[in-house]
Amino acid sequence: MPSKPAPIKKAAGKEPAKKQEAAPEPAPEAAPEPAPAEAAPEAAPAEAEAAPAEAAPAEGEAPAAPPAEEPKPPTPPPADAAAPEETPAAPAEAPADAAAAPAAEEAAAVSEAPADAEAAEAAPEEPKPPTPPPPPPKEPTSAPLDLFVEDKNDTSVSIIWSQPEIVGHSGLDGYTIEVCKDGTEDWKAVNEELQKSCRYVIKNQTTGDRLKIRVVAVNAGGRSPPVALPEAVLVKEVADRPKVRLPRFLRQRYVANVGAKINLTIPFTGKPKPVVTWTKNGQPLDTKRVNIRSSDRDSILFIRTAEREDSGVYEMCVKVEDFDDKASLILQIVELPGPPASVKIVDTWGFNVALEWTPPTDNGNTEITGYTIQKADKKTGDWFTVLEHYHRLNATISDLIMGNTYKFKVFSENKCGISEDATIAKEEAKILKTGIEYKPPEYKEHDFSEPPKFTTNLTDRATTVGYSTKLLCSVRGSPKPKVQWMKNQMIIGDDPKYRQICVQGICSLEIRRPGNFDGGVYSCKAKNDHGEATVSCKLEVKQPAVPDAEKK
User: What CATH number should be reported for the domain holding residue 357?
Assistant: First the structure.
């Protein structure tokens, strides 16, 4: 009996060796709990039988089922394993045999792992996707545009700008607003996060400070060049922006005569008191000619005696801090024009004279609106106006007296009136006496000859025995056609039963008290030297209705 336990110890010693080569860590879930010391001696053979069954997978046979599955019948042990009948029922050695079971399971798992690795090496490799091109380099945007002050008060300044002209592929993330005091270059950002919109209010500033402000656009490529205000901004409230209230009558050209007094008052608003400046045609005013008096509410432009040189475009500017307003007015000083440059007689015929003249060299600083032409008989020398407000540069003077000699002169006219002097034509116009022979015009006599033509035809009529009736028609022709009435193609003639009338082409035939035999076809024939025409109608004569009582 003592010689048989040796193989069991040898088998138990081989299993841990395989465990070190195949799997460095044991599987703790498969280790059975050791049998208690108080267990019966009969339990040892059962455990000894279970040990060879679990050790079998270490020899390459079927692996043991996991603990979660139902138990399978034990497989026969390998040849080198000891028979369970020969295992001694020693309670002290049972734990060593039980520790061999988890080592066998780990060895079986290690034997399967190389097989899986070989299968993975045998599988073909998948193709790799193409490498994408490198992204374009990121560049910053161009500088923002049109930065200016929108509003300000004692503690804040509101600015506004436009987005950069060139943004690029990197897009635009936002803007950074930076400020520094005037005279320094200590620029500091006033916004913690990037500003998305193109408007920003710089708050919490000290009243009276002068700030330099600039804006920078930011994107993935970095910072853009900055755009800065041209001048430093004074942090101070503007109570009321300046505004010029130009009167309505000054919004158009203001015209005054030479020598007149000019006194124009232009009101304005703004707080604190605006600074008022005037210019003429973009240049400073001549204080010897023009006086300016300004108060808190208006400014007065005063010229004591206007001259033509005072004409021009006057511009008034009111300014409060960084804000200003301007208004322009056009002043035009006019006077009477000079006379026409020349006047001459172009032609003389019958009782008519043709004149021509040229515009004056001096129009009085305004357009010429017309001319006045006068004539004078050489015998009397008295001038009479023949044309006024005449717009052309030539005219024909008619209804002159035969045998007289005339002189002519022309005045110019503009808004101020007629020129003081006139230009007299050097030539004189003499209306000659000539014999007058009247020749009446010859007229070709119109031929009014026309053949007869009925303009109104006869219409069929019906009458009753004993009731007179009348037939009517109308005819025209030249010379006057001769009218003849017929009954059934027979000329009626002077039968007293019929009355024939033809007045101004209207022809009528009256049948007096017609009888049973007066019915038939009546015709009217018109005839002259150029032809004839005939119209006809049918006359029906009916019997009068007799009451039934009279018939009986």
Answer: 2.60.40.10
Residue at which a domain ends, from 317, 334, 351 = 334
277: three-class secondary structure by DSSP: strand
Report the share of the chain in percent with pLDDT over 90: 47
pLDDT digits (tens, 9 = 90+) for 398-453: 999 888 999 999 999 998 999 999 999 999 999 887 766 788 888 888 888 999 99
Q: pTM of this prediction?
A: 0.40
Contacts with 179 (C-beta within 8 Å, 6 or more apart), sequence order: 187, 188, 190, 202, 211, 212, 213, 214
Angle, to 10 degrees, between the axis of helix 43-55 and the axis of helix 5-22?
A: 40
| Residue 2 within any structural domain of the chain | no
Query: What does the alpha-carbon distance between residue 418 and residue 308 come to, in Å, rounded to a whole number?
Result: 18
Q: Is residue 6 part of a domain?
A: no
Please choose, from the candidates 456, 477, 453, the residue with its C-alpha nearest in 3D space to the C-alpha of residue 537. Answer: 456
Number of domains in the chain: 4
Q: Which domain holds residue 534?
A: 450-542
pLDDT of 32 strictly over 80: no
CB 314 within 8 A of CB 328: yes
More confident residue, 494 or 68: 494
Helix H or strand E segment including 18: helix 5-22
Domain match, 210 and 258 both: no
> How far is Cα 511 from Cα 468, in angstroms, rounded to an integer?
6
